[in-house]
Design a protein that fits this description.
The chain has twelve helices and no strands. The chain is mostly helical and about 350 residues long.
């Protein structure tokens, strides 16, 4: 039977190998060393020991890292195996479990299984919402927004985009308070910039869903706010800012076309009313005895009668592209023809 000293020596060797392999970029080999160490710890300390569950968390983190990497490389089988392993190993680590659920949702979205993706995101949201120690669920809300939009559930998608926006505003407010009372370092500044970028995306996704729901004025407001936040805090030349500007421009063009179609439909309604009124006037005049003078009067009165509804329609408050502004939705940050952005 292997002695405790021998087990400790082997564990130190495996830990050293793991650290070296990660520095060399040999992550799969590092994962193999970590898994061997996990087995040794389970045998030495028991399955319920802190040492074992700490090791489980570390292995799960590496599995998530590699799973996302291989998902980006479109090696879906290996990505799935790694993420499912992370799901099992993070059973007692809520933060790791929530991250794994989000990553599995990304996997299922990539392979087109949207309802499975939504199920995992809802699991992640439940964990994040009840545990104060976890990261803000804003990112998960945005991911749910993207999935629901692809499923055509735009009203529900808009609700999640709005929830993300509220959470991000609260998060940034608290971040600003703590920053003003403490030292400003590069890491904190980068984190704040990253969260502002997500806030801009939240406005963008709101705009897309509002556009899908034909709330054009609100959509343009959201698109403009998205661009304003990005320009102010990320800079005019930042990649996200550039994409959002393109999205706003595309949305404005699209909405001009939609407004033109709306006006055409309104004009058709007016034309039908004119025709109907003309027929009614003609019928009443045929019943009269003075056809000549009656026809002259009916022409004048018909014009006056039809000018009233036309004037009322012209004075209606239609969406104004110059007065309002919003952000659109799509992986490419386009318009409502695409899907909203997910983080």
């Amino acid at each position: 039977m292997e002695s405790s000293a021998d087990s400790n020596d082997e564990l130190r060797r495996l830990d050293d190998d793991c650290a070296r392999l990660q520095k060399e970029g040999k992550y799969l080999e590092a994962l193999e060393a970590m898994e061997k160490g996990l087995v040794l710890r389970r045998n030495a300390f028991g399955i319920d020991s802190d040492q074992v569950w700490t090791a489980c968390r570390q292995v799960a983190e590496l599995c998530n890292l590699l799973g996302v990497h291989y998902l980006q490389q479109e090696n879906f089988d290996l990505a799935f195996d790694l993420l499912k392993k992370a799901e099992i190993l993070s059973d007692r680590h809520e933060s790791g479990k929530a991250a794994t659920y989000n990553n599995l949702a990304c996997y299922y979205r990539r392979i087109g299984m949207l309802r499975a993706a939504l199920s995992y995101l809802e699991k992640a949201l439940r964990l994040e919402s009840k545990a104060e120690s976890l990261e803000s669920p804003a990112d998960t809300h945005l991911n749910i927004c993207a999935i629901l939009s692809q499923l055509g559930k735009h009203a529900a998608a808009l609700e999640h985009a709005q929830s993300a926006l509220i959470l991000l505003q609260e998060e940034l407010f608290q971040f600003a308070l703590t920053s003003s009372n403490g030292p400003k370092d590069e890491e904190r500044s980068k984190k704040m910039q990253d969260r502002i970028a997500v806030l801009a995306i939240a406005y963008h996704n709101m705009g897309v869903e509002q556009e899908f729901l034909k709330r054009y004025e609100a959509a343009l407001v959201s698109y403009r706010k998205s661009v304003e936040f990005a320009e102010t805090h990320l800079g005019a030349t930042h990649g996200i800012t550039t994409n959002l500007k393109g999205s706003l421009s595309a949305a404005q063009k699209q909405m001009k076309m939609m407004l033109a179609k709306q006006n055409q439909r309104k004009q058709k309604v007016i034309d039908r009313k004119e025709q109907k009124t003309g027929k009614l006037m003609s019928s009443s005049l045929n019943l009269g005895s003075a056809a000549g003078s009656g026809l002259s009067m009916s022409k004048d009165s018909r014009i006056m009668a039809l000018m009233t509804p036309r004037a009322e329609l012209e004075n209606e408050q239609l969406p104004s592209l110059s007065d309002h502004d919003v952000s659109s939705s799509a992986p490419a940050l386009a318009t409502a023809e695409s899907e909203p952005v997910s983080t």
